[in-house]
Amino acid sequence: MARSTAWLIHVAVAAGLVTVSASAQGVGPGGAAPAAAAAAAKPAASVAPERGGTSQFFADVIHDYRNFVSMDTVKNLGPAAVGSMAVHAADDSLHDHFEDSDSNPLPGGNTYGLIVVQVPAAFAWWMVGHAVGSVNNAEAGRDLVRAQISAVSWTYAVKFAVSRERPNGDPRAFPSGHASTSFATAVILQRHYGWKAGVPAFAAAAYTAASRVTGNKHWASDVAFGAALGMQSARVVTVRFRETPVSIAPAAVAGGGVIQFSVRADP
Fold first, then answer.
1. CA dihedral over 119, 121, 127, 133, signed as positive or negative
2. 122 contacts 145 by C-beta, under 8 angstroms
3. How far apart are CA 150 and CA 234, in angstroms?
4. Per-residue confidence (pLDDT) for residue 78, from 0 to 100
5. Which H or E run contains 249?
6. Overall number of domains in the chain
7. C-beta neighbour count of 212 within 10 angstroms
8. Could you give the residue ranges of the DSSP H alpha helices within the chain?
9. Pick from 97, 101, 151, 148: which is nearest to 123 by CA?
10. What is the pTM (predicted TM-score) of this model?
């Protein structure tokens, strides 16, 4: 499974970058000459800035990995790790509550958080943005791809290091990949489009995370830390944005656990 997932990401990266690079350079069915003529016909002021091609993208991905290893990550993931341990106390009770359910009371979340959904969707956002000439949407798609690469990489690094058994007996429970990818997407959409996109994106991510617990696929502590890991992966990608932080504070309560969200609004 891990090998096929890595293969999928590598293929998607290669295919997406070839398409986006061609679009950025104006290469299409009509060839380079029509694209050059069209560019020459436009005023210089209307030419949209580009952030570089394939080599710049891979350089940015490498910087994301380097920047993830920082005090900012310690400050964000440290409390999340402590909170996940607190939620761990409620893991068994939550598992017992949903174990006997004939079906998942929260359908759809298992699909939304899949890597094979989130990664291609990120590439599609990037490529469509280029195709329609929207720099803002192309930049958002580019950041979505970078956030997914980072979130998936760190999620599976921790999964193999911890090797925790899932409540249904499957391996590699901690942290939840569905939670990390969906929350990474939510942060990117909020940073680029504001809370009109951020609110539904975070709602979808929270629903996805909860569905992994109700569906007996993860412990509550798995999704709590997975959510924090995905958010931090996206924060590293969008460090150029002014901070509007969203924080997660998982905590155990009587008879279960909760995940608390706090948002600092713009002044």
1. negative
2. yes
3. 8
4. 93
5. strand 246-253
6. 1
7. 28
8. 2-24, 32-41, 54-68, 71-88, 91-99, 109-112, 115-131, 135-162, 177-193, 195-214, 220-237
9. 148
10. 0.74
Q: List pLDDT tens digits, range 143-157.
A: 999 999 999 999 999
Close Cβ partners of 18 (under 8 Å, ≥ 6 residues apart): 54
H/E run at residue 263: strand 256-263
Burial profile 157-183: b = 16 or more Cβ within 10 angstroms, e = fewer: ebbeeeebebbeeeebbbbbbbbbbbb
Residue 226: which of 87, 122, 103 has the closest Cα?
A: 87
**Residues 125, 20: Cα–Cα separation, whole Å:** 11
Each residue's pLDDT tens digit, 7-43: 444 434 444 443 444 444 444 444 444 444 444 444 4
Coil/strand/helix, residue 252: strand
Distance CA 80, CA 224 (A): 7
Q: pLDDT per residue over 108-119, tens digit each?
A: 999 999 999 999
Domain coverage including residue 235: 2-263
Measured distance CA(186)–CA(199) in Å, rounded: 8
Residues 6+ apart with CB under 8 A from 116: 8
Q: Distances from the Cα of 244 to the Cαs of 115, 187, 194, 219, in angstroms?
A: 26, 10, 10, 29
Could you give the CA distance from residue 200 to residue 86 in angstroms, rounded to a whole number? Answer: 28
Which positions of the chain have pLDDT values less than 50? 1-50, 244, 265-267
Provide the 3-class DSSP secondary structure of residue 3: helix
